Amino acid sequence: MLPYFLGCPSWNEPAWRGSFYPSDLRPSETLARYAATFNAVEGNTTFYARPSPQTVQRWAEQMPAHFRFCAKLSGDISHAGDLREHFAATADFLALLAPLGQRVAPLWLQLPAAFGPSRLGELLSWLDEFTERAIAVELRHPAFFARGEDERLLNRALQARGVERICLDSRALFACTSRDPAVLHAQSKKPRLPVRPTAFSAHPQLRFIGGPDLEANQAFLEPWLDKVAAWIEQGLAPHVFLHTPDNHLAAAQALRFHASLSERLPGMPALNLTAAEPAAEQLGLL
Fold first, then answer.
1. Where residue 112 sits, what CATH number does that domain have?
2. How do residues 40-94 score in pLDDT, each as one tens digit?
3. What's the burial of 285, exposed, middle or buried (CB within 10 Å: 0-12/13-18/19+)?
4. Hey, CA dihedral for 117, 201, 133, 113, is it positive or negative?
5. Which range marks the domain in which residue 138 is found?
């Protein structure tokens, strides 16, 4: 079993067919095939819409017990008014995902850029309402990245509660000068914020947003490989998620990350590449 959690923004990526997935793989089989290689996924789908109970049950049947589904709170909780008004909605959301059990860890709260220091008390009240859950928070307001008192107060409050501060690193994306529409779209949507590597619990969280050139991304990943290796050596189990602009190469980027990390940590278990052999051979990873 891997000593860390590795994955992509989703498992249902049609562009992976014929590379990471067999070309004839049915949509209903993608989760099981994904989970045969990776042990975590970003729960982006739950931000946009709540899944049906039947869908959650299917996920529960296909996700191994050690798998981690980092479910994002739906946008009508995280992006709609005071968080303290959404205790009941949050409880309902958690009840919906209950069939996944311990696989929903941590629960992700991604806050809008307008959520600033004046609302810190609101955030802490919400966190204190759900202390039994492992939670990670992604913030985007510039004041929380200014190395001032607002950021210090935030970090102290999160660390005291064992709540992770999700680190989003989009430097590779914004260093890309491609005029490809997928790159331009990603650059228009993704935040461009200073990098804040933190470990406030046993499970530090990294979201790396790269460009379409995996070799060019490597220079930005090298410091993260050192950081993740150090965390693992300290006994932590970080979560690492790899993005590319349209995520067509996200799985390939994740495979490359693990290969590079294994060079730093001899004895690292190999990924199960049965599902990924065509892509790995195509990308020169084997």
1. 3.20.20.410
2. 999 999 999 999 999 999 999 999 999 999 999 999 999 999 999 999 999 999 9
3. middle
4. positive
5. 5-282
